[in-house]
Amino acid sequence: MRVGIVWKLFGLTTALCSLILAVIYVGQTLFFKEYYINRKVADIEAELRSFAEKYAVGDEADIAKLERNLDLNHGVWATVLDEYGNPRQTMYLETKLAEEPDGPPYRVPLDALVPEDGANADISALARGTYIIIQGIKRTGLFLPIALEAPELGASWKDERLASLTDELVGEYKRRYAEEKAPPPFEFTASKAIVDNVRMQLPEDGSESPGDNELFLDRIEEFRVDLLLGEEMKADALTTDFEQNDVRYQWFVRPLMNDRGEAAYLVALVSLQPVDEAVRMVEDYYVYVVAFATVLIVLVSLYHAIRIARPLLAINRTTKRLAELDFTAAVPISSRDEIGELSLSINTLSSSLQAHIGQLKEDIEKEKRLETTRKEFISGVSHELKTPLSVMKSCLSILKDGVAGEKRDYYFAALEREVDKMDLLVADMLDLAKYESGTYRLKTEPFPIEKSVEAVCEQLALKLAEKRLRLKASLEPAVVVANQRLIEQVAVNFLNNAIQYTPEEERIDILVAREGERVLVRVENKGARIPDEQLDKVWDRFYRGDSSRRRSEGGSGLGLAISKNILELHGVPYGAGNTEDGVAFYFYLDMHAE
């Protein structure tokens, strides 16, 4: 079954667009979420790097601005912890342990402690000299309390968050150090102490407290415990993700160092739930996008197919007409693309074929005319040769029979004249064939035309005298560009023609005159005029007009035909026309630019 180009283009375009849409949909479904997350994480990490650089030079205003940017632009909870993992805005007490009276003082952070059993006991009631009992993780210089009791005040406090982490984490680290056969750098114990001092630590860089985000506080607590339980009090840069309550989060830890060499940590937490919600929304929205895009693809594909196919169908119709040799057909050009260029090329081809076929028809007609002329030429030549041959045959018969012996010289002179006529006829025929062959290469040169015409007049002076003709020459000096020998031949032919058809004792006028950029050469003879309808035929071979203009003697009948071909080789105007008293033949030549 034949499938049209419109449906082929429609099917191909629809399939291609649908494939692209499917690839986009699959890519969005499989990779968009991860791409979105990776891009968001990369943006946050760039902010964190900028934060670390500003922190290193102690630019407090920029640090505060970066913290706000993390919250506002990326929805990130972020804070700076001190070298022990404690918030930088916290209350702590300083004390020496009873079992280590000569040991170093310990810092005990109080920020995470809350009253036990719902008691309303303000930890700020602790003062210098208060007896306390501390239970928690002890490390050189820091005692991280899980529970703290002040018997004198009848109050106790507990870090519920740390308590939930301690058993598992402490046991895990103890097992790790046991496997490595190394003593743990911490101790999980309870100690008695007297409060030496209670202080409030405030950050110099203007950073805020972690706030009340429970998950963020849990992650900070885990980080602080990991820091204390580790072999060295140092944490590396860390980026991890975790999931809680079916929500993904990203956790960041970046070590900091200010310009005074003090260590700190930047911790940040970001929820990826907005990403999941955005992806789900995009997936839901994409159903409508796919439906709309499908309809649009079908419509656009159909329009695209019709738009491309329409000029192709027009080209097909036009080429069918060209195949039927109807070269008047043309393809409408509606665009400037390759199809438009193809249409233009077909139109150009059609015009060229039409022109060539027209030229071929003209050539055929010309060939027919040439064939007719050739027949006429052969007929004319036969006629022209028949007369001298008859005369020669008669003379030879008389001489052979010995009749009129006293006129022997007369008959030999008659034979000689007829031979000369035949020689002239043959020479003119050869010249005419040469000029009409189309292979003759014309060579031109500048020369004074009045000198050439004057030389022609002198050459034919004897003929003029024989008919007692008067010659009036008006020769204006002028230099022309032409083939001097051939132009002189034209002048001879014109003047011979004038002598031949001018009655005795009449006048012939010869004119050479400038007319603008050209020079006019005209030969006018007095006598019988040529009928207007025959003026164009005088240039034909062996042309004979009415009886008043028939040749009585001389000439081959080819002089004007030869002149016509010479002048056409020069590409100049020429012609013949009746005057008041006779006939004038003329031609123009181009002047030489000096």
Overall 3D form? rod-shaped
* DSSP E strands, number: 18
Listing every helix as H and every strand as E from the N terminus to the C terminus, the arrangement reads HHEEEEEEEHEHEEEHHHEHHEEHEEHEE
Largest sheet: spatial strand order: 3-2-8-5-6-7-4
Spatial gap, N to C terminus: 77 Å
Q: Class by helix and strand content? A: alpha+beta
Mean pLDDT rating: 79
Summed up, the helix count is: 11
Q: What fraction of residues sit in β-strands? A: 15-25%
The helicity comes to 40-55%
List unreliable stretches of 5+ residues: 546-553
Query: What is the radius of gyration?
Result: 62 Å
> Could you give a short account of the major beta sheet?
7 strands, antiparallel
SSE map:
Layout: H1 5-56, H2 60-74, E1 76-81, E2 90-97, E3 106-109, E4 114-115, E5 131-139, E6 142-150, E7 155-158, H3 160-179, E8 187-201, H4 214-229, E9 238-244, E10 247-257, E11 263-271, H5 273-323, H6 338-401, H7 408-436, E12 445-448, H8 449-459, H9 461-466, E13 470-475, E14 479-482, H10 484-501, E15 507-515, E16 518-526, H11 559-570, E17 574-578, E18 582-590
Parallel strand pairs: 13-15
Antiparallel strand pairs: 1-11, 2-3, 2-8, 4-7, 5-6, 5-8, 6-7, 9-10, 10-11, 12-14, 15-16, 16-18, 17-18
